[in-house]
Amino acid sequence: MNRLRCALLAGTILLPLHADDLPKAETVLDHFIEVTGGKAAHEKIHSEVTKGTMEFVGKGIKGKIASYEAEPNKNFTLADLEGVGKVESGTDGDVFWERSAITGPRIKSGDERDEILRASIFNPYLNWRKLYATVETTGSESVDGEDCYKLLLTPKTGQPITEWYAKKSGLLVKSSSVHKTQMGDIPADSLLKDYKPVAGLLMPFTRIDRFAGQEIQIRVDSIEFDSGVPKDRFELPEEIKALVRKSGATNEKPIEKK
User: Could you say which of 20, 97, 220, 251 has the lowest number of CB atoms within 10 Å?
Assistant: First the structure.
């Protein structure tokens, strides 16, 4: 579900607490791993295939979406939308790209690439210590009537991310950040719902993204782990290879690994 991201979602802000009443962010993040299946179960997973439907609410645009992921940071996402056509994006772990009938093929670079690089790390919540320079619990708020701990996650480079974890269940219910795009910085909110068990792990089956006055709903039909993603699934399309040759694009400095 991690790569079915077009943006992030909204919620309600209430009930601040004193700092002394708040658990450490490290505790909240590690608890999330435990309630979704535990560290050992997460570590057994090396690839993921997610399929579902995608709808631009109120726009009359909907279609199928499929996402393929593999460690350490390879992914490919394909959305086939009515009236729009195919929208593809992915990375072979080196070059980050996208193509559609609207934008044509292009390679992502600079701040936009750095953001996608972090998002492409497989099982990011298991590896949060590699991704963030600091994590902090900043308050207690309500999201859709559910009491949550509010966390501020600051990556080693790029914009900070705010996340809300339900006090009762320990599950991530909301995420908010600013996305780097060709059109500039776009604030985005994401709401995660309908957690269901899949091979011993709890996974969200509904995602609602809100950004730039739009709302996108993604509903998952199936999630498969280690199901044999084709080796060529993450190969660059010929159009992207041509852009790489033309521009001399090379791998920029990766996220530091520990």
Answer: 20
| Domain 19-247 part of CATH 2.60.40.1120 | no
Q: Which residue has the tokens 């009443």?
A: 21
- In 123-248, at which residue ranges do the beta strands (DSSP E only) sit? 132-143, 146-155, 161-166, 172-181, 184-198, 201-211, 214-225
* Residue 228 burial (C-beta neighbours within 10 Å; 0-12, 13-18, 19+): exposed
Phi, psi at 97, each rounded to 5° = -145, 170
User: Residues 71-116: pLDDT tens digits?
Assistant: 999 999 999 999 899 999 999 999 999 999 888 999 988 888 888 8
Strands 214-225 and 201-211: antiparallel
Domain residue ranges in the chain: 19-247
Which two structure tokens, joined as six digits, stand for 240? 């992207």
The predicted model scores a pTM of: 0.85
pLDDT in tens, 213-241: 999 999 999 999 998 788 899 999 999 99
3-state DSSP assignment of residue 199: coil
